[in-house]
């Protein structure tokens, strides 16, 4: 990864934990210790099981986090964008990353070392409290996802994913603002690539979505929502 200078005080990511707490005098000292890098598209910057190397915050770009499942297959567990946090589940007793992470496009990452993060957590209670709420929210999302996967069929899981990335990344010029391969869609939806392609093809024939290469655009969001409403899609 190439080192890059990203300045917190001019950052526009209002959802970033660091940005939210820059008004606190204590944070000035810790922000000065931050390192920033450019991670090129498709490159991996966190390896599952590797020693913890602090927290990453996305300054700009998109990232997928993955976890190894049955037969060594990687499954996407999270998609993230500007202002989001990567690697937070490693801050446990094992001190190792529980996920891997890849850049989906050229991405600028801000990294705060283990030592710096520990100092912040011990000395900035407002930050620690906000992170505790974040962990609680992520746990709730994980529990909801497990429940939905157990009760949804393949079509519903693919639709749920489409609604999720539409909410997360928005739609520009008629297409969702993230490019995922059919394999990545299948991995995230917990199905096979063939089944994902079949569902997308059917949705396109039904005029619910449109596709151009990897790009997908939602044409009838209300109809898609109605198919998964009983599973409370909005809790994802």
How would you sum up this structure in a few lines?
The protein is α+β, with helices and mostly antiparallel strands and 236 residues long.
Structure report:
This protein has two domains: 2-139, Jelly Rolls (Sandwich); 152-235, Winged helix-like DNA-binding domain superfamily/Winged helix DNA-binding domain (Arc Repressor Mutant, subunit A). It has 236 residues and is an alpha+beta fold. The mean pLDDT is 89. The strands form four sheets. Strands 1-2-9-4-7 form a five-stranded antiparallel sheet. A four-stranded antiparallel sheet has the order 3-8-5-6. A two-stranded antiparallel sheet has the order 10-11. The chain is built from eight helices and 13 strands. The chain has helices spanning 17-20, 27-31, 114-123, 125-151, 154-169, 182-189, 193-205, 221-228; strands at residues 2-3, 35-39, 44-46, 55-60, 63-68, 74-80, 85-86, 100-103, 107-112, 171-172, 175-176, 209-212, 215-218. Helix 5 (154-169) crosses helix 8 (221-228) and helix 6 crosses helix 7.
């Amino acid at each position: 990864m190439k080192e890059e200078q990203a300045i917190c005080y001019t950052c526009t990511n209002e959802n970033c934990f660091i940005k939210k707490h820059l008004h606190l005098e204590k944070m000035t000292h810790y922000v000065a210790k931050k390192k920033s890098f450019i991670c090129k598209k498709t490159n991996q910057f966190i390896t599952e099981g590797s020693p913890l190397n602090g927290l990453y915050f996305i300054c700009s770009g998109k990232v997928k986090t993955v976890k190894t499942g049955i037969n060594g297959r990687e499954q996407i567990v999270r998609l993230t964008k500007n202002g989001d946090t990567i690697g937070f589940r490693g801050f446990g007793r094992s001190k190792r990353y529980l996920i891997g992470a890849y850049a989906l496009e050229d991405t600028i990452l801000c990294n705060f070392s283990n030592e710096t993060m520990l100092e912040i957590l011990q000395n900035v209670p407002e930050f620690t409290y906000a992170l505790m709420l974040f962990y609680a929210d992520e746990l709730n999302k994980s529990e909801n996802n497990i429940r939905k996967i157990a009760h949804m069929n393949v079509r519903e899981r693919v639709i749920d994913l489409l609604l999720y990335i539409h909410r997360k990344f928005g739609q520009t010029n008629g297409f969702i603002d993230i490019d995922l391969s059919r394999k990545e869609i299948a991995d995230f939806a917990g199905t096979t690539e063939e089944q994902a392609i079949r569902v997308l093809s059917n949705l396109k024939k039904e005029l619910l979505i449109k596709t151009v290469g990897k790009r997908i655009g939602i044409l009838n969001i209300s109809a898609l929502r109605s198919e998964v409403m009983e599973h409370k899609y909005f809790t994802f």
